[in-house]
Write a structure and sequence with these properties.
Keywords: Signal. This is Bark storage protein A. It comes from Morella rubra (Chinese bayberry). GO terms for molecular function: catalytic activity. One of its GO terms (biological process) is nucleoside metabolic process. The structure is a single chain. 36% of the residues are buried. The chain has five helices and eleven strands. It has a five-stranded mixed beta barrel with strand order 1-10-9-2-11. The chain has a three-stranded antiparallel beta sheet with strand order 3-5-4, with no helix packed on it. The chain has a two-stranded antiparallel sheet with strand order 6-7. With 256 residues, the chain is of the alpha/beta class. Helix 1 runs parallel beside helix 4. The chain folds into two domains: 181 residues, Nucleoside phosphorylase domain (Rossmann fold); 52 residues, no CATH class. The structure holds 2-acetamido-2-deoxy-beta-D-glucopyranose. The site of 2-acetamido-2-deoxy-beta-D-glucopyranose (NAG) has 7 residues, from helix 5.
């Protein structure tokens, strides 16, 4: 199964759940385009991550509190300080940084509450990083030399020949990321390559329904800009990336 949803974690999750409920589905191969957070990859590369997380479920900490202070509802197991946080004042544009404080304080990343079908009813579990199906992932490694298209016509070509990249992690959020500082934060904190708006939702639903899952995401933009990428390339990168992602998916499904 491939699924294309309209830029939202909720739509992607609902669609996945509906398809898994209504049809007998052996596995889910999700695909699309994504922003790139990994400086080691190039525009147009098609990534296949081993793990996905939803990184937009936050506990936003009250001003004046810090890493040593318990979060609201932490003692009842709702929230945790285990995954880490973003401190807004680290991003103040000033030579006086870090003596400047910021009223937005900190946001702490939270795992999802999940209820897998093989769990105890009404007893929640938590998940942040979800592995893709290990068999699908092994099969995807056969595609590292798969030939991808570099040009969309006789004149419009990517600066480098795109490749299939087997990567450690990707992350999703209901956030269209066009901000270099946050992109770099995500890359350093979570070692992610693709950043998108759906894959983790599909992963979370599949995990709870015990359906094998993998996602293929082509890097169609740099999630916050890069002066090295000519503006005219950005105009066709998305279309070419989507085409290459689909080609990889067809090959991956054939191999599976
Ligand atoms: C090639 O594609 C680019 C980007 O979509 C477009 O601007 C250009 O006109 C196309 N050139 C030809 C020869 O079709």
């Amino acid at each position: 199964m491939g699924s294309q949803s309209c830029s939202s974690n909720i739509n992607a999750a609902v669609t996945t759940q509906l398809l898994l409920t209504l049809f007998r589905i052996g596995g889910v191969v999700h695909f699309g385009v994504a922003g790139n957070a990994n400086p080691g990859l190039n525009l147009g590369d098609v990534t296949i991550p081993f793990q996905w997380s939803h990184s937009a479920l936050w506990s936003w900490q009250r001003y004046g509190k810090g890493p040593k202070d318990e979060l609201p509802l932490e003692s009842s197991g709702d929230f945790t300080r285990a995954i880490g946080y973003l401190k807004f004042s680290d991003y103040t544009v000033s030579h006086l940084r870090p003596t400047f404080d910021n009223l937005l304080n900190n946001v702490w990343y939270q795992p999802e509450e999940i209820f897998p079908v093989d769990g105890t009813p009404e007893v929640r579990q938590h998940a942040f990083w979800l592995n893709v199906d290990p068999h699908y992932f092994e099969v995807s490694k056969k595609l590292v030399n798969f030939k991808l298209q570099r040009c969309i016509n006789s004149t419009a070509c990517l600066p480098t020949t795109p490749k299939v990249a087997i990567v450690e992690r990707g992350t999703s959020g209901s956030i269209y990321l066009d901000n270099e500082a946050y992109r770099n934060f995500l890359a350093h904190k979570f070692r992610v390559s693709p950043v998108d708006m759906e894959s983790a939702s599909v992963a979370l639903v599949c995990f709870q329904q015990m359906a094998p899952f993998i996602a293929v995401r082509a890097l169609s933009d740099l999630a916050g800009g890069d002066s090295k990428v000519p503006a005219e390339v950005e105009t066709f990168a998305s279309k070419l990336s989507a085409y290459n992602a689909a080609k990889v998916v067809v090959e991956l499904v054939r191999e599976i």
